[in-house]
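Lab notebook: predicted structure, single chain.

Context: the supervisor wants predicted structures on file for every construct in the current expression panel, including those that have not yet been purified. This is the next one on the list. No modifications to the sequence; it matches the entry in the shared construct table.
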Amino acid sequence: MDAIDKVDIAIADRLQQDGRLSNAKLAEQLSMSEASCWRRQKRLEESGVIEGYQAVLNRRKLGIGVMAFVQIVCTQHSEEVTAAFEKIIQVCPNVLACHNTTGEADFLLQVVARDLDDYSRFVEKVLRKLPGVLSIRTNISLREMKMTNKLPITDFVNA
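Prediction complete. Output recorded below exactly as produced.
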């Protein structure tokens, strides 16, 4: 892909704010022709800058009351054990995010559950059965003060 310019950033930023924004409205907001706007958006999608579109759901209104951050320390770091660990985590719907980290823990997971009993079952049936796990440490979110997937692209690209 060619270098991303300020117009590409403006398109991506507006679509981050409202993924349902029509091409006509987006072009109007950016003072562009619809054809040019559509071509740029398609280029951003095809290059992988825009990976997809989705609705943002309120987990509490859907009965998902527990958000946990789980630190996992592993005893083994072989390619086979790590691949098996990753394969299980990838298909687990309770795990919203998983990061291989520095520091005390090897992995940091963001996990959701209906309630504490549901989370307890998840720990027993999934986390404790993960290959190579030495310890599991959970921090339960008491209050969510901020949650977003929006990247501050205008701050980074224009800097």
